Every structure is written in structure tokens, then in C-alpha cells.
Amino acid sequence: MRKGEQIISTLLGGRILLEGILSKHLKFILYIFLLLILYISMYNAVERTLLANYRLEKELQLLHAEYTRKSADLMRLSQQQEIEKQLKAKGSELQAPQNPPAWIKSNP
Fold first, then answer.
1. What DSSP character marks residue 98?
2. Does residue 21 fall inside a structural domain?
3. Is the whole-model pTM more than 0.70?
4. Cα angle vertex 100, ends 99, 106, to 5°?
5. How many folded domains does the chain comprise?
6. Separation CA 55–CA 58 (nearest Å)
7. pLDDT tens string 57-92
8. How far is residue 46's CA from residue 65's CA, in Å, rounded to a whole number?
9. Residue 29 contacts by C-beta under 8 Å, 6 or more apart in sequence?
10. Is residue 66 part of a domain?
11. 80 Cβ contact list (under 8 Å, min separation 6)
12. Domain annotation covers residue 94
């Protein structure tokens, strides 16, 4: 029997448990298994964090676009011509003054 076949037959045949090969390295195997579980859990935690960060960035972009749109709408609505149009549409008789307001100066 070749060495490779002997190793496979030892692993699959169960002789590894009887000969004590596994018990000699049990602490190391458990340590490696623990590290593997820790690595997988850390990877999943990082993946969840990145996904949450991506979702929050998308939501922030949408909120910024909505803010910009609303700000532009308010700026347009606050213009004098727009106010006059809205007043005329509602049937108000208010008009813009023909003469600019006069400055009142006081002498101390």
C-alpha cells in the first residue's frame, strides 16, 4: 500500500481514533475550529455593517435631493412675481407699491 492510500484508509477507516493520533492534536484542532468560527462571525458582522452603511448613504442622497428640491420650490414661491400671481389667482386686490418706501431719518 502506498503512503497516500494508507493515510486515506487511516482517516476513513477509523483507525485514526484508535491509534490516538487525533487525541494528540485535539487542542490544536479545537483552536483552529474556534478561529474559523471567529473569522466567519467577524466577516458576517463586517458585511452587515457595510450593507447598513450603504443603505444609509443611499437614504442620505435621497434626503439631500428632496431638501434641494424643496428649497428651490420655496425660493421660487417667495419671489415677488410669484406672490403677485398667487394673489391674483385667489382674487385678492392687493398690489405691489408703485413708489419705493421712504427712509425715515432721525437726528440724535
1. S
2. yes
3. no
4. 125
5. 1
6. 5
7. 999 999 999 999 999 988 888 888 888 888 888 888
8. 29
9. 22
10. yes
11. 96
12. no
